């Protein structure tokens, strides 16, 4: 007793083939969009690789590019098969290819599921990479004369301006590092000497932040130096006043940006999986309805299409026995002759 | 005496109609593109409307949008004519529309070319509008508590950061205005009182610029205050050192940006213009088709060879034929014709 069988006449078969052809081409477009999203994601990661210590993992975008291309190819081939299905000569030629193609599609859906899972899980990896990378970038902000770190300052400034954030967790991260290079410090000055001597490592620490932390939306000209010193500025109380620098940390800001990209890509992949499954089901119906035509010469005859030839449980049992016999193929059968050992 | 007579076998008529139909559809798409380009330009101009004094420059995108829409309609109409052209039964109803179609089509093609020329001619107007707008923006930078000017500071800051510029002509414009609001100045301080007394208008002028003038690419942390005072900063010489603020003025930056945008759009519109000219020229062929079809009208055998011509009478006579109704309308031809009886006065 077939699983979920449906009766088909000529009209229904033609409609099924046409509908399935459109679905396959829709899947090709979705495949193209996955491919382009993969490229977009890769470019976005590359753009900010400096704040991630150049150690970010490109696994997800590479997989997306691969999966996008595979989806395009598979679904274009499927569309072509649907197009040829209603022609009896072409159908008989492609009959042997149907089963492997459907198995391939199922395997591809499994791969898509894996990629969707990765999209959600790799967000943790990006979070940790960002935390580490930002810490280092803030530390090397002042090293604009060290080869390999010349552009850290510029990258971090542009990131802080673009994402409207300051520091790693918040703006106080800038108080803990020396972000003004020694080249621009007058070491003969008493104030400078005091500050440098006031801490163990001899760093020139200030309660100031770089200009890129300034918020243009604040009504007051930016206060970036002596942030905790109320007397340094007129009418200023750093505890009560709304500071006119960004208070959000860059790790949170950049992570939420990447997280939203990855989540939307994940959702798109889940939609693709649903689309793929519908394609495979449709193809199974089409192929079985064409195979079970009672009179192959007469295109207008009735036929039956189904998803599984036997019931669900019986098909499952069949598959299990097949797997078992695959494993036992090498053993000698009971009652069979033992392999003869020919004397030399 | 007809102008440019040509023989038209059936095949040639078919090919002509098909070619024209395709060309009209291409021109329709091109018209839609022109409209989109006009919308884009208008959006970009609108985004920076706060730093522009007047909206004179908006005539360029407005004209582009009108021309795009008109071209869309005209070419769609032309493709409809071509579709019906070979059907002798359906063609005659379009006969009355062909003359106005030519006139309107020529008018909008010329208008397209004028728009491109206008975009270059209006550079001066754009620049003066930006000059006044930016000057006001810088003057009202500090007025973040005055209704209507609350967002000047934010707009100017974002503008300077995005276009990598400082001030109107250059960063020295900030030295001439008070850009720190009185709310944040300590009037009991001697330094503040000195500065205010030092100029006629009683303004607090500093040789400093806002933070948005800072250049992130500079290796040194931003020096934005006391720019002309060498002793205020270590290892700093105002005259020789490469300043770590943007040196370019915002007016120059904005004019360059908009001119670049209009050049790109102008190139696109010029290619659409060429396509449109091509379509009009082929519409002249349509005229041939029309005259050829007129010879077929009433004849049962549609596959006969017919003659087509450009103008039925000579050029002068045709021009007079077009102008007559216009002149009569303007009451310039109210004269009584020779030999006619004078109008009877009651």
Automatic annotation (TrEMBL), chain A:
Keywords, sorted A to Z? Cell adhesion, Disulfide bond, Glycoprotein, Membrane, Transmembrane, Transmembrane helix
| CDD domains per UniProt | peripherin_like_LEL (cd03162)
Q: Where in the cell is it found?
A: Membrane
Q: Which SUPFAM superfamilies match?
A: Tetraspanin
Report the main location listed first in the record.
membrane
Keyword Membrane included in the entry's annotation: yes
Annotated TM spans: 21-43, 63-82, 103-126, 255-275
For this chain, the family text in UniProt reads: Belongs to the PRPH2/ROM1 family.
A Pfam family cross-referenced in the UniProt record is Tetraspanin
- Which Gene Ontology cellular component terms are annotated? plasma membrane
> How does the protein's chain sit in the membrane according to the entry?
Multi-pass membrane protein
| Family matches, as InterPro entries | Peripherin/rom-1 (IPR000830), Peripherin/rom-1_CS (IPR018498), Peripherin_LEL (IPR042026), Tetraspanin/Peripherin (IPR018499), Tetraspanin_EC2_sf (IPR008952)
Tell me which positions the record assigns to the signal sequence.
none
- Keyword Transmembrane belongs to the record: yes
What protein is this chain from? Peripherin-2
GO terms of biological process kind:
cell adhesion; visual perception
From which domain of life does this come?
Answer: Eukaryota
**PROSITE patterns xrefs:** RDS_ROM1
UniProtKB/TrEMBL annotation, chain B:
Spell out the CDD domains in the cross-references.
peripherin_like_LEL
Under the cellular component aspect of Gene Ontology, which terms does the record hold?
plasma membrane
UniProt cross-references to Pfam families, sorted A to Z: Tetraspanin
Stated name of the protein: Retinal outer segment membrane protein 1a
Q: Where in the cell is it found?
A: Membrane
N-terminal signal peptide: none
Q: Give the family, as the similarity comment puts it.
A: Belongs to the PRPH2/ROM1 family.
Topology with regard to the membrane? Multi-pass membrane protein
Listed transmembrane segments: 59-79, 100-122
Name a single GO biological process.
Answer: visual perception
Keywords on this record?
Membrane, Transmembrane, Transmembrane helix
Record bears the keyword tRNA processing? no
This protein's species is Nothobranchius furzeri
The keyword Metal-binding appears for this protein? no
Q: Which PANTHER family match?
A: PERIPHERIN-2, TETRASPANIN
Q: InterPro entries per the record?
A: Peripherin/rom-1, Peripherin/rom-1_CS, Peripherin_LEL, Tetraspanin/Peripherin, Tetraspanin_EC2_sf
